Amino acid sequence: MNKNLKKNIIILAATLLLLLLAMILLLERKTGTFDYDSKAFAIKDTSEIYKIFIADNYGDNVLLEKQSSGNWTVNQEHEAVRKNVADLLNVIQNISIREPVAHAARTNVNKWLATGATKIEIYYYDYRIKIGKKRLWKYKTKKVYYMGGVTQDNLGNYALLEGGKEPFIVNMPGFRGFISPYYSPFLNDWRSHNIVQLKISKIKEINVLDLEEPDQSLRIQRTDTRNFHILKSDNQKLIAYDTAKLFDHLSEYRDLNFEFFAKDLTKNEKDTIFSLKFKEIIITDMDNNSTKISLYYMINELDTANYEYDYDFVEEFNKDKFYATINDNTDEIVICQYFVFDRIIQPLRYYLKESELLAIPRYKK
Prior knowledge:
Layout: H1 3-31, E1 49-55, E2 61-66, E3 72-74, E4 78-79, H2 82-94, E5 96-100, H3 103-116, E6 118-131, E7 134-150, E8 157-161, E9 168-171, E10 194-196, E11 203-210, E12 218-222, E13 228-231, H4 243-251, E14 256-257, E15 260-261, H5 267-274, E16 277-285, E17 290-299, E18 317-326, E19 334-337, H6 338-341
């Protein structure tokens, strides 16, 4: 055997050996615990997402849908909170596999996921061909996964891709905490808290009814494109008023919001609330659409089990918050802040030119 042939045989044998080793390593990787794409749960381009369905095992579910305007709705009926949707899309884009679940724990984790996980269905557009910025052959697809409970270190969640057998621990790099709260299946976590959004140019009339001091009720009425009258309770026009205070009032309707939905109120609690009505505000726009806000005092809750109070110095009603209903919907009570409403619930005397009243809340005595 000549020298060159012997050399070629050695090279060939070494090459085959290396190929064999590579195949063994590849097969081991495919059957091992570390064969996963850390971004398997993520969707890189969230601008292509048009629908998200979230449901738990207790009958709670929400359907978020993107409109042609770019805004999102929840359950085809309500405007969704923009920030909450933006936060969710950020998680969907950046969710990452931290590590596989240990073999010893997989059986239990799979049981937990089967009984207590939240199902997430994300519908989006993808492209069969992607070359640089070029996108061709657009089609609809979806990604489905199950978001489970929190890990012991509170820095991740157990999760499972639909069709997968192996659960993972997922998190969002750079975020210290767990991400499951972003996938809420509860309607009220997504519904917009907006009451009214009106520019001053779109306001026709504001009627503020004071139920405790009726003579301090007032009506703000547009007279032309730039001017308004303030009318007293007897419909007499206020001859002079503080225009700065008036326009401060009108500007509050550009984006007026409540803070929370009131939850788990009993019938007796509701009856008590409805007996404490102190204001009514009716906003009418240039298209004659009206929004009515009814305001009710919130009784201060005192911790009598742990503290003693001098009742001569304790406020009967909460100084910061009150209840409200919108458009006489007594089935849905919301909680508002005086800080937000102070400028629009002031008495008539507040607008007098010589008045030195500040925009601070008034309380029933």
